[in-house]
Write a structure and sequence with these properties.
It is a single chain. This protein has two helices and no strands. The chain is 88% helix and 0% strand. The chain is mainly alpha-helical. Helix 1 (2-26) packs antiparallel against helix 2. The chain is elongated and about 60 Å long. The longest helix is centred in the last third of the chain and has 34 residues, at 33-66.
């Protein structure tokens, strides 16, 4: 499930990062680092979701085995 979700999400993140880079580099007082910040935030968010899902799955397995 997560592989399929992250595959679609990565396409969206890359497209949006490209748009942010183009917009950021065309405006005064802004630069393309906005796009990099967005990508880093998206990666950290995806990692948090993956770790959370893994911890929840392990906890459910232990609960099921104890029942």
């Amino acid at each position: 499930f997560l592989k399929a979700e992250y595959k679609i999400l990565s396409i969206f993140v890359v497209c949006l990062a490209i748009l942010l880079y183009i917009k950021g580099s065309n405006e005064e007082g802004s630069h393309g680092m906005v796009a990099l910040s967005f990508v880093v935030g998206a990666v950290c968010s995806a990692l948090a979701g993956f770790i959370g899902m893994r911890v929840a799955t392990k906890a459910n397995v232990r609960t099921t085995n104890a029942a």
